[in-house]
């Protein structure tokens, strides 16, 4: 056999493969997965029945235009259907946005640390990532991000709330930042955790996009809506951007099951509000307990908390796992822990307390 392998694009060298949150060990001690910011609840009422019915026709391709879902979303958000685009999760839509805007020689700006897919999808496209460190308070440094804009900048992500820190940018600072961004640079407000926000000063990206043609809002059904496994996310953006997203989409990327489940989930909003409310209550309990134990916890508006543990990150994650909860370590930096079932949160808090007493 020849030693020569097919030529691959040089950009792929050194790009890490996306690392998913570790699953809970099967068959081990009670183990809860708090590593992927998933919703711990079963599907919303009516969703299982809808998906089961839709399953009878998966020998057929899905509706490529996602007509039913688009109409539902257009009505829900008060936007034209032409301003909507769907994709295989919001990460899929984020990748389409980069494909539509940036290639070799172009720059994509985002805060760091932030969602770990940003550097991967930027580099796959051949564009250059420009990472702007978070402030000491673990918040987007919007002044530094504005200062990082060059004539090569094509896209800027603002992750609000930020994954993995849970921190937010508020209305006034965001508007001030957007006023500084040139009109021909796309700003993507990644609002994957929007439903968990309780701070009234955090703007709804959908309101911001209305008067700003260079702003695109990213949302997902994976988190609050509990459809992570079905892969459906969407963008709201003005015509040229939304149209570009429809061009860069993988044909038939959103399955009929996902489309039907998303529609049924949107229609089960009362139950959704109740569940999100419970998780937000648990978030307060977890943050308060951690602070009472002596931890520094940045204010989180998402369904997870962030502990900057530095060199002790991996030890802490291992201690949590031994106790029965899997968390998400970023070696040398910190640990992100999803707010999950009450029992899982209890186990995590106990493990955090035990670790703290050993410091
Ligand atoms: C900030 C942020 N954006 C986007 C996503 C992508 O989610 P999905 O592709 O499941 O919609 C995630 C998932 O973790 C996220 O944290």
Characterization of this structure:
The mean pLDDT is 95. The protein has 12 helices and 12 strands. It has a 7-stranded mixed sheet with strand order 2-8-7-6-5-3-4, with helices on both faces. The relative contact order is 0.17. Helix content is 38%, strand content 15%. Helix 1 (47-55) packs antiparallel against helix 9 (256-267), helix 10 (269-293) runs parallel beside helix 12 and helix 11 (313-323) packs across helix 12. It is α/β, with parallel strands linked by helices. It has helices at 47-55, 67-77, 89-101, 117-124, 142-147, 171-180, 205-210, 239-248, 256-267, 269-293, 313-323, 342-358; strands spanning 32-33, 84-87, 107-112, 128-133, 153-159, 186-190, 215-220, 233-236, 304-307, 325-326, 328-330, 334-338. The structure holds pyridoxal-5'-phosphate.
